[in-house]
Amino acid sequence: MKLTALKKAILLCLIPTTSTFAAGLDRSGQSIAAFLQPGNYFEAGISILDPDVSGKDKDNKNTGDMAGDYYFPHAALKIQATDHFSVGLIYDQPYGADAEYSGNSGFVENRPVPFKGGTSVVVDTQNLNLLVGYQPNENWNLYAGAVYQTVDGTVLLRGTTYSVLNGYDFRTGEDESVGWLAGVAYQIPEIALKASVTYRAEIKHKMNAYEHFGLAGLTGNAKLDGVMTALNASSGETELTTPQSVNVDFQTGIMTNTVAFANVRWVDWSNFKVQPYNFGKLSQVLGQAGLVANKPNGFNLIDYKDDQISATVGLGRKFSDRWGANVSVGWDSGAGNPVTTLGPTEGFWSVGTGVRFSPAENYFIGAGVKYYWLGDADAVTGAHSAAGTFTDNNAIAYGLNLGYKF
């Protein structure tokens, strides 16, 4: 099929930059835009996030910047096997976290105990998506696929903020599981209109994670010391489920060499929780003993109050056969306030821009930058006791990608 001039222009414009800072643990935005490109297509890129997140603990002590920098790569390969069938592979790192407290706040343990240091969290995930698409005609594309996912997380609680959980360690090791996705896309190439809806199912992980209670034998409460010592010597299966989500993407030509685009994403964070096996057992003891108010059935290490809704809108324009650019504005609802101390922000507003250089018609180099105004938040522990406030924070993200049509 011969490409129209407008469609060629759209292919030279930047694909909207994906999210790198969002509610919960959401990072990549899980785009399948590469799979919906015409013909055979390969893409690879990397995103880098530099956040600045600080606040005050419940005693009004400064936390310092607790959010670490991190990067994540992505790659995609799409093959148009026949006029009606396509296959694709997409690799990304959809969820993640990297944070550590330092200094002299209630999130840091500086006393001479075996577990000195700051509260920290590191979460790494990887997704490999295998997709198959069926195109009954040039307008419709029905697709579905399998998702192979790995999760590796570490949480260390330190400081008086966490009471008897000060010194708690949780390490999952790398766990593997599978899920699925499905969607439908519609396009009118002559006017550069393209719309798609993609659903991703939740993915359940079950693991024998490492847990250790650092205050076992040190609380001065014989019953609690006995419970924690016994739990340190036991193990059980921990369940962790990454959330279901829906992505809606839309673009259309609005004038010569210019397109408008939009993305809306929903993530089911309100049903997400992390309650390690032994952590859950101790939380029930604390709740039933009245040591944690209103939690007779225990509490979670991490959970979220609300679902996440995010949206990005923007314009892309081709300036010449070699150069194109875009601008975008984004909004994220967050996943409820108060929030976990391991990620103490509530949504954001963002503005971004990017450029694309195409030395030849069949390949390009793109780069972009996005600035985030992060929402103020009240931080709480897993037991939902007040821990601090975090205000006036921000982040900046950079991205680089390469694309090749063959």
TrEMBL record:
Residues 1-22 form the signal peptide. It is a multi-pass membrane protein. GO terms for cellular component: cell outer membrane. InterPro entries: OMPP1/FadL/TodX. It is found in: Cell outer membrane. Keywords: Cell outer membrane, Membrane, Signal, Transmembrane, Transmembrane beta strand. GO terms for molecular function: long-chain fatty acid transporting porin activity. Its main location: membrane. Pfam families: Toluene_X. Belongs to the OmpP1/FadL family. This is Long-chain fatty acid transporter. It comes from Acinetobacter tandoii DSM 14970 = CIP 107469.
